[in-house]
């Protein structure tokens, strides 16, 4: 007599949210390891290349042959790239969420141009040349342009297309002003010719300490805004129903973008495409949830910026190509290819 065995009940699959959380944490750890590798490359690679052992001794031993280059030159440069990358990446993510436009970017919408115009004015007409002196002008310029683009684009009724057009118009006008000032003042042109293309080469310890507090406040503010911005994406009425305040969220987002972009631009110059490409591509991995997207942006944007700086040193050796040129040359075709193939997430 045969005995029929009852079928074994299927094993319960783990909840989808738990699987996504594990994948997100694992991917973020991998991104952090990549960032660590890029930081090491930033310290080791340049006109003169050092091994990791020489870099380690150069960081810790004042009598090491590599101390002057590694500790006093490359370390501030790499740290500045880290801070500026965090600022530009988070600013791009917040701006794309605020405008509901996956192609929004602090550079393309004129925020960086506003900071640049204010700094050029401070350098040319007021004689201010230190980061500590003109960082406040950068904040003022970025804040004014943020409000101007928002107003010209239609305010609360703004559409992604109108904001993009308003930003492009303001961007063109401000860069025309910057170019005119530089051409009319040769001394200003000599002082600003590397800054206006975006560069980490002039980084000093004082530059890093000068912008770090503003980047830190901007990072904290974006962390607080992640959930309200998620709610705002559903519309003002739904956001209010979820406990968010649309007006306060928009103001907070503009303040965060102003702090992040103003500090990064004051220290490095107007670097474009980092704040556009990184959030745009990260969204394909994390989805639109800012609680996942923003941490990835904060890690992968510095990877992009420091990596571009290292690439400029290698390609231009024994001189170097400024990081702003590298991001523009590398980022432009990549972005156009993504748009042309219809892979723009949310577009």
Automatic annotation (TrEMBL):
Q: Which residues cross the membrane?
A: 23-45, 79-98, 110-128, 135-152, 164-184, 205-226, 253-281, 321-339
Keyword presence, Transport: yes
Family membership, please give it.
Answer: Belongs to the binding-protein-dependent transport system permease family. FecCD subfamily.
Give its localization: Cell membrane
List the protein's name: Iron chelate uptake ABC transporter family permease subunit
Q: How does it sit in the membrane?
A: Multi-pass membrane protein
Tell me which UniProt keywords the record has, alphabetically. Cell membrane, Membrane, Transmembrane, Transmembrane helix, Transport
Native organism taxonomy: Bacteria, Bacillati, Actinomycetota, Actinomycetes, Streptosporangiales
Top-level taxon of the source organism: Bacteria
Main localization of the protein described in the UniProt heading: membrane
Instruction: List the Pfam families hit by this protein, alphabetically.
Output: FecCD
Q: Does the keyword Oxidoreductase apply?
A: no
